[in-house]
Amino acid sequence: MTEHRPWRGVLVATALPLNDDLSVNHDRYAQHCAWLVENGCDGVVPNGSLGEYQVLTPEERARVVETAVAAIGGDRVMPGVAAYGSAEARRWAEQAGEAGCRAVMLLPPNAYRADERSVLAHYAEVARSGLPVVAYNNPIDTKVDLVPELLARLHGEGYIRGVKEFSGDVRRAYRIAELAPELDLLIGADDVLLELAVAGAKGWVAGYPNALPRACAELYRAAVGGDLGSALPLYRQLHPLLRWDSQVEFVQAIKLSMDIVGRHGGPCRPPRAALLPGQEAAVRAATEKAVAAGLS
């Protein structure tokens, strides 16, 4: 029997629609999740950094997961369960399971620069929830680097089943495959999609499909299918936008692109500030160029 791995394919790290008063618009969020699936994406990742989970109340955070599940089904929803404490992260994983989700995504400890023993204990605790865990390696923001050797140990202990790789170092894909061949590599940064797809990635936890799902899904499938004749020109067209996923202002940029293409991106909660005029102009120009090319 083939094992179900709900983290494979294009899973959109969803931006969260906010009203003008910065309250969560759950109806629009449900519509957004359904729209993404209708336009070629395989699922969503609520409560990631793009979903501004750090500034949500516990009640909001739980409801976001429940809203996504109600909209597209638990098999298509892999929530982020990051928290400062391992016990809290495990509780979020348990909440995800109770809501009907089949997997969760977990950052390492990020309140301090954790050592290897702490990282292992953190993933061990959340794995006790019973749901498969996909690790999220983001050493830029967390200051904790899940290097290939540590990922292989986490996988060998049975704590993780995949990894969202956001280091930007595409060379790691080959080392991970050597050390842990059964660990699924997921593209974690939009602007290295082609490189990691060629290296054997099994999925993409994606940002820019929030605005351009159809074109991004087409790019991903061409890339993992080895159709470079189709993938490379599309990658070049989209790259001026995809690279924003690796910038500090990625949430604001993606929400602006959503607004431009007729979706509701809307504001961000503080402390995220509005884009500077030059940044806004760059995002707007790149988005409008993609729309003019028929990529929306």
From TrEMBL:
GO MF term (any one): 4-hydroxy-tetrahydrodipicolinate synthase activity
Record carries keyword Nucleotide-binding: no
Coiled coil: none
Keywords associated with the record: Lyase
Annotated InterPro entries: Aldolase_TIM, DapA-like
Chain sites annotated for binding pyruvate: V205
Taxonomy, superkingdom: Bacteria
List of catalytic residues: Y136, K164
CDD domains per record: DHDPS-like
Keyword Chloroplast: no
One Pfam family from the record: DHDPS
PANTHER family named among the record's database cross-references: DIHYDRODIPICOLINATE SYNTHASE (PTHR12128)
Record-stated family: Belongs to the DapA family.
Protein name in the entry: Dihydrodipicolinate synthase family protein
Organism for this UniProt entry: Streptomyces cahuitamycinicus
UniProt lineage: Bacteria, Bacillati, Actinomycetota, Actinomycetes, Kitasatosporales
